[in-house]
Amino acid sequence: MLTKVQKKIIQFLQGNLPLESAPYLKLAKALNVNEDQIIKEIRTLKKAGYIRRLAAVLDHYKIGLRSNCMCVWQVPAGNIKQIAKIAKSQSQISHCYLRQREKNWPYNFYTMIHGRSKAECLKIIKHIEAKTGISNYQMLFTQKQLKKVSPRYKI
User: Fold this and answer.
1) pTM here?
2) In terms of C-beta density within 10 A (0-12 exposed, 13-18 middle, 19 or more buried), how is residue 115 classed?
3) Domain limits, the chain
4) Each residue of 87-130: pLDDT tens digit?
5) In this structure, which topology does domain 67-141 adopt according to CATH?
6) Percentage of the chain surpassing pLDDT 70?
7) For the sheet containing 109-115, what is the strand order?
């Protein structure tokens, strides 16, 4: 069970960290603890698996990755581990999900591919197809980004 302080830390970490030498100082003061205690709690939360990582989030459009493709694959149950291993090894793939098939939608494995061009995304898809032999897929290229925010969880 999370403590009140841990919940406040998680809420704080879901937002933009202040760009300063002591980013946790204001939070520590608000919680009536010191910065070292905040850092210790963050380590505890990470060790317990509540926090996976702390990282910068880049705007992939601004760094030139303007083509995005959700590629959905029809993967037999016995091939899931194989395709997952190959897809996860591709740096251009940010998300991989296994989902339930639906009556009129046979695709169960989803990958989000980011590239500088449509051709670059296609190259990754063809690489995965060649490595796995899975050729039943659909490519859903982004036409326009309508919303892009980091998730904020209510705890």
Assistant:
1) 0.78
2) buried
3) 4-47, 67-141
4) 999 999 999 999 999 999 999 999 999 999 999 999 999 999 99
5) Alpha-Beta Plaits (3.30.70)
6) 100
7) 93-98, 109-115, 67-73, 137-141
